[in-house]
Amino acid sequence: MRVAHVAALAASLTLALLVAMPAAAEETASAPEAPDSSVDDTTAFENDTYERGRSLFAQCSRCHELDPLRANRIGPNLFSILGRPAAALQDFRYSQGMRAAAQDGLVWSRDALDRFIADPRSVVRRTSMNYRGMEDATARADLVTFLTGVTPGEYAPQTPVATDGAATEIGAAAMALEGDAAYGEYLSGECVTCHQETGANEGIPGIVGWPRDAFIRALFEYKTNVRSHQVMQLVTSNLGDEEIAALAAYFEQLGE
User: Is the pTM of this model over 0.70?
Assistant: First the structure.
């Protein structure tokens, strides 16, 4: 009797297990997979890097444009810089040092950009770019990521544009004038006490051959304290639209 009871109990347990197993398997099969958070983390990291690079480019935007529809400024337009040979823009007057680097085969790879941003003169010995370099390797990587990833029209112009297409930027009144180069030569005596008429860069950036609008914009930025340099702020404080337009015409003409 006891043996029969044990056998019946074992049979009941076996049946219960057989009934429960499909349900357990079904629950396991239908359980949702945990999302792969690594994809979202990677995207967020790339976006953060790009946005930090965008902020850092504000330091560069005083001299460089990053909109393919806008002209060069004091420095060349940097849109689509990755993979571009040095001194490749036909409408920009490069320094002798940059032209020599181009002849030596310099191409703007990510590594070359990183080294140039870190110490411009270690890559192009006689560059006219008056920039000491960026020491922070992470900041350089962020900036290079932004420079090499920006798309047309994404980066807002440095200066606003009115609805009628006329520039409303600083110095617009002087830009509208036809500068008198002869008058500019007369006024240039104070400029060439520091800036060499040959366009050479010996600690002070050359200004010969600058595009007139870039020249005018730079002087007005000193005049209105957008750029900080005590000597330049003092010099420009006494210049009006006509004088600045004349100087721009003269120094642009010297580079022709």
Answer: no
